[in-house]
């Protein structure tokens, strides 16, 4: 499998039943899709996501009317994640009923799955550190743990106003707050949302990949909205962000030139 570093162009034959041809040339790092309700922002994202299989296979995307131009152009797969931030009640309760924790919303379920990935990430990180130490490279061993420490510092800073801090002696995500230990499912919707986004970015382990986000500002405080893109890029400089938004705050920290109106890429 040859993985793409990023998506260079998205072409969609028709957005709705033979109408609206889409050609969107993308930036390597940040791409923000804007437009009025119903114009097709989420539809464009959904069509692209559905054009690749769960393992990132883009070989058969032509059959779905979606053409992805990648760098390198002979890539057969793309690493990607999708974040949908609406905190609805769980719809697949039968599946969730098989786990031992009480999960009430879609964000809870995302956090549960991310906790498992977080454990795998730490095991892989530990193996890399051991290998570096065996080679006598203490500096490399220290550098390997920096993204995890950066993630923990980010979350502590974001949650500081409510006195929550990550318990750094735990393998799973836990928070201390005025002597009480909290699990992620006890957080507010906005806190869960930010934790889902940052955990998703962290466990990709600084690999080049595409992060699709559909209105990620929902439930986030305006200050968090302004910092969102910068936090993601700091945690993984190799990510390519493709997002839809209604909020001006998301682009206020220097990303206004990265906004594309749906009407500008459709004919």
Features of the shown structure:
5-stranded parallel sheet; globular; about 270 residues; alpha/beta; about 20% strand; 3-stranded antiparallel sheet; 11 strands; single chain; 7 helices
Offer a quick outline of the entry:
This protein has helices at residues 41-51, 93-96, 106-134, 138-144, 146-158, 189-202, 222-235, and strands spanning 6-12, 22-25, 30-34, 66-71, 80-84, 165-166, 175-177, 180-182, 209-214, 239-244, 259-261. With 267 residues, it is an alpha/beta fold.
Note down, in words, how this protein is organized.
By secondary structure, the chain is of the alpha/beta class. It has 7 helices and 11 strands. It has helices spanning 41-51, 93-96, 106-134, 138-144, 146-158, 189-202, 222-235; strands at 6-12, 22-25, 30-34, 66-71, 80-84, 165-166, 175-177, 180-182, 209-214, 239-244, 259-261. The strands form 3 sheets. A 5-stranded parallel beta sheet has the order 5-9-10-3-11, sandwiched between helices. A hairpin with a 2-residue loop joins β7 (175-177) and β8. The protein is globular, with a radius of gyration of 19 Å. The two termini are 34 Å apart. The model has no long low-confidence stretch (mean pLDDT 88).
Helix and strand topology:
Layout: E1 6-12, E2 22-25, E3 30-34, H1 41-51, E4 66-71, E5 80-84, H2 93-96, H3 106-134, H4 138-144, H5 146-158, E6 165-166, E7 175-177, E8 180-182, H6 189-202, E9 209-214, H7 222-235, E10 239-244, E11 259-261
Helix pairs in contact: 3-4, 3-6, 5-6, 6-7
């Amino acid at each position: 499998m040859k993985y793409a570093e990023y998506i260079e162009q998205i072409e969609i034959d028709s957005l709705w039943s033979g109408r609206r041809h889409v050609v969107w040339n993308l930036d390597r790092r940040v791409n923000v899709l804007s437009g009025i309700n119903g114009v097709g922002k989420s539809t464009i994202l959904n069509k692209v996501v559905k054009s690749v299989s769960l393992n990132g296979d883009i070989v058969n995307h032509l059959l779905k009317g979606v053409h992805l131009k990648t760098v390198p152009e002979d890539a057969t797969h793309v690493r990607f994640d999708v974040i949908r931030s609406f905190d609805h009640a769980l719809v697949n309760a039968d599946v969730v009923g098989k786990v031992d924790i009480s999960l009430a919303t879609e964000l809870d379920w995302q956090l549960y799955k991310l906790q498992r990935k977080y454990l795998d990430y730490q095991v892989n990180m530990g193996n890399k550190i051991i290998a570096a130490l065996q080679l006598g490279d203490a500096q490399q061993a220290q550098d390997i743990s920096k993204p995890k420490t950066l993630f923990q510092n980010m979350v502590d800073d974001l949650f500081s106003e409510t006195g929550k801090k990550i318990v750094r002696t735990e393998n799973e995500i836990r928070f201390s707050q005025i002597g009480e230990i909290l699990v992620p499912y006890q957080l507010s919707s906005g806190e869960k949302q930010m934790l889902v986004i940052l955990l998703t970015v962290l466990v990709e382990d600084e690999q080049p990949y595409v992060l699709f986000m559909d209105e990620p500002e929902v439930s986030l405080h305006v200050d968090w909205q302004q910092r969102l893109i910068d936090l993601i890029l700091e945690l993984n400089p190799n990510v390519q962000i493709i997002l839809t938004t209604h909020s001006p705050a998301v682009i206020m920290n220097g990303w206004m030139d990265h906004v594309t109106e749906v009407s500008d890429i459709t004919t």
